[in-house]
Specification:
Layout (H helix, E strand, L loop, with lengths): L1 H8 L2 H7 L4 H4 L6 H26 L6 H19 L1 H9 L9 H23 L9 H18 L8 H16 L2 H5 L14 H20 L14
Helix pairs in contact: 1-6, 4-5, 4-6, 4-7, 5-6, 5-7, 5-8, 5-9, 7-8
């Protein structure tokens, strides 16, 4: 819901209908529409940060910094576009959130950005990043391009997610890698955790929201699983 309609267009009555609940029931778990949306945004950015971190930690310790960037590009895109509706919603609506609702989301987003910054800095220190590039500008431009894919990519219009990932990796690496780094062999990141199937994705997404609700209300999460702002 939030992913499709945005912050301004998401109404509790629509969320309730989608979750097969009466609108007043949502107030049992959340005090307001804004609190519900803020929680979805927080869960979305937190989950993609954890996923990318998990993928990077699973790599061989000797993996080149530039290849770690390639792995992070794949992990980010796959999670954003095929695993988490919450992350898609968080990416699409980050700029629409009122200032007073951004604190938790911005805190995690900044930490996630710093982790990407460290990836680029490691590549620069290893001589694998082009010398003429500014590390922060590189990180911001690449992340902006990856996030924008949530706005235009649609598997129904042709082009597989794997093809998109490989294209993104090629553009990023050939744009930022030093000649010496390009002369090496770029690691095959296809061993990264595969996207969950759609049915599994829905269960996992609802589970995430249930856990979030449980943290706030302390109530049983069975009914809370239906309170999801997914498209």
């Amino acid at each position: 819901m939030l992913s499709r309609k945005g912050f301004a267009g998401t109404r509790l009555v629509d969320v309730a209908a989608h979750a097969e609940l009466q609108a007043p029931a949502i107030y049992y778990y959340f005090k307001s529409r804004e609190e519900l949306i803020e929680e979805v945004m927080f869960v979305g950015i937190s989950n993609i940060r954890a996923h990318v971190s998990e993928v990077l930690e699973a790599l061989d310790p000797n993996t080149r910094p530039i290849d770690r960037i390639a792995a992070a590009v794949e992990a980010h895109l796959r999670y954003e576009l095929s695993i988490s509706d919450y992350t898609t919603a968080a990416i699409r609506n980050g700029g629409q959130m009122p200032e007073h609702l951004r604190e938790r989301h911005e805190s995690v987003r900044n930490k996630y950005g710093n982790e990407w910054q460290a990836l680029y800095q490691a590549a620069k220190d290893a001589g694998e990043l082009r010398e003429d590039l500014d590390v922060r500008a590189t990180r911001m431009l690449v992340m902006g391009a990856l996030n924008w894919a949530a706005e235009w990519w649609n598997p129904k219009r042709g082009g597989s997610l794997t093809s998109l990932v490989r294209t993104a990796q090629s553009i990023v690496l050939h744009g930022i890698a030093s000649p010496a780094a390009l002369a090496g062999t770029v690691a095959d990141t296809s061993s990264a955790p595969a996207p969950e199937k759609s049915s599994t994705k829905r269960v996992a997404a609802k589970s995430n929201t249930a856990k979030a609700v449980g943290r706030r209300s302390g109530t049983k999460t069975a009914s809370a699983k239906k309170v999801a702002a997914k498209g």
